[in-house]
Design goal:
single chain; 105 residues; three-stranded antiparallel sheet; two-stranded antiparallel ribbon; 16% helix; 27% strand
Amino acid sequence: MDPESGLSVKRDRSTLGEIILKSGSVMLGYLKDPIATNKCMKENKWFYTGDVDIMHADGYLEIKNRSKDIIINGDENLNIIEVESVLYAHPTINETVVVARPNEY
């Protein structure tokens, strides 16, 4: 679903959404931690996993990343895994890791 609007994302293999769950076997919250519980369990009692995904037309769900692994740069959201993939493709790079840090921009 789109975490902003609460609506299902398009099944177009490009629109990012968040996986949310609700069932009898999903936790009710974090023990003695109401702040963490309120972050992942919204008012509708669905568990927001923090996993960023895309949907395919046939209903296939493809997990792309964790929302905590997204770099917000102005109006752009950069996927750390995609940045690392581009770096790995360069012939002179053997290992890489991308770490975000806050800045004024």
